[in-house]
Amino acid sequence: MPKIHMTLQGKGGVGKSFVAALVAQYKVSRGSLPLCIDTDPVNASFHGYGNLNVRRLQIMDGDEINPRNFDTLVELIAPSNEDVIIDNGASSFVPLSHYLISNQVPTLLQNMGHKLVVHTIVTGGQALLDTINGFAQLVTQFPDETSFVVWLNPYWGPIEYAGKSFEQLKACKDNRQRVSAIVEIPQLKKETYGRDLSDMLQERMTFDEALTTASLPIMTRQRLKIIKDGLFSQLDQVEVLS
């Protein structure tokens, strides 16, 4: 069953495009050719990955979903025999979530032979509570046929509240049965691994592009390979990515 992987989170700058690009790269590395679509109305970062052939589609009209453009999105998804990866912006989080639910899109996709997988990011620092609330909002509003993958991104700070990890928090414990997997993005040393990854993302390069770029220092490529291998090793355990 082809899966529709969609990033959804109401906070900007938490790593949605990184997650979309990483899932796409993982699928390619396992012999798939996913259909990649960027619907972010403001920052089309996913679209910048030339090697992933990301198509840009504007589904927003001001603050609302443009129904005809959304129809186009469904028409693109419907015939796909490969997984589809859709990156969405923070500004479209509320209207898109409402539109998907009110129009029973997860059930429609299920009836077409597709499964909706929502990838949502929880990050530390000032955005911690907002992203946790965003996660809780999604899992309680979307129907049971929707699967969820939670990505823990410690870039802005540790993911803990009142001494509790994400998995110990009520929002997670109450909804753990809805979560197919939790992926932990590693805390990277900013002077080395963190800078190398940040530079790669800034250039919209895939891991494979970076690893075959001879102009990059040998140790930069080695650190990027370690990051890639660690993340892909986790994704090997995510059933909804198989």
Offer a concise description of the structure.
The chain has 242 residues and is of the alpha/beta class. The protein contains 9 helices and 11 strands. The protein has helices spanning 16-29, 67-77, 93-102, 105-111, 128-141, 170-175, 190-202, 207-211, 218-235, and strands spanning 3-7, 35-38, 55-56, 60-61, 64-65, 84-87, 115-123, 147-153, 160-161, 164-165, 179-184.
Task: Give a structural overview.
- With 242 residues, this protein is α/β, with parallel strands linked by helices.
- The chain is built from nine helices and eleven strands.
- Strands 3-2-6-1-7-8-11 form a seven-stranded parallel β-sheet, with helices on both faces. Strands 4-5 form a two-stranded antiparallel sheet.
- Strand 9 and strand 10 form a beta hairpin.
- Helix 7 packs across helix 9.
- The longest helix has 18 residues.
- It is globular and about 50 Å long.
State the order of secondary-structure elements, H for helix, E for strand. EHEEEEHEHHEHEEEHEHHH
Strand order of the largest sheet: 3-2-6-1-7-8-11
What is the tally of helical segments? 9
Category by helix and strand content: alpha/beta
How are the SSEs ordered, and which strands pair?
Layout: E1 3-7, H1 16-29, E2 35-38, E3 55-56, E4 60-61, E5 64-65, H2 67-77, E6 84-87, H3 93-102, H4 105-111, E7 115-123, H5 128-141, E8 147-153, E9 160-161, E10 164-165, H6 170-175, E11 179-184, H7 190-202, H8 207-211, H9 218-235
Parallel strand pairs: 1-6, 1-7, 2-3, 2-6, 7-8, 8-11
Antiparallel strand pairs: 4-5, 9-10
Helix pairs in contact: 7-9
